[in-house]
Amino acid sequence: MTTTDPAVGENGTTGGRTRISPRALDRIVSTVTAEAFGSDPKRTSVTVTDDGGTLTLVITTPVKVPSLLRVNDDHNVIGRTGGTVLDRATAAQAVITSQVSRLTGYHIGRVSIRLTGADVIQEKRVK
Prior knowledge:
Oligomer: single chain
Strand order of the largest sheet: 1-2-3
Largest sheet: 3 strands, mixed
Distance between the termini: 79 Å
Structural class: alpha+beta
Strand content: 25-35%
Helix content: 25-40%
Number of strands: 3
Order of helices and strands: HEEHHHE
Shape: elongated
């Protein structure tokens, strides 16, 4: 009679767990958030809580926006920079949820984003 160890996969690999430290998880979420908003990860703060096996992320970050003078001159600049702030925050929630889940293996239940300020994008002039 042959028995197999349930922790050994078909290709001979052993199963197990990978533990991600809270600090590493915070840095992953901060980096993914900064990429989604075009901001500095050092200016992003994260609170991660376990909510019955799923993670809840509370994120505080600034957002980059075009200057109001630029928007007044060219209304299409909003579309070129990713849409309104609300549109960008909604899209960022989906990106953060999927990227953090993919990178860490954790199930993300809720992402709450608090925008703390607006950093004006300095556009380069065409010569």
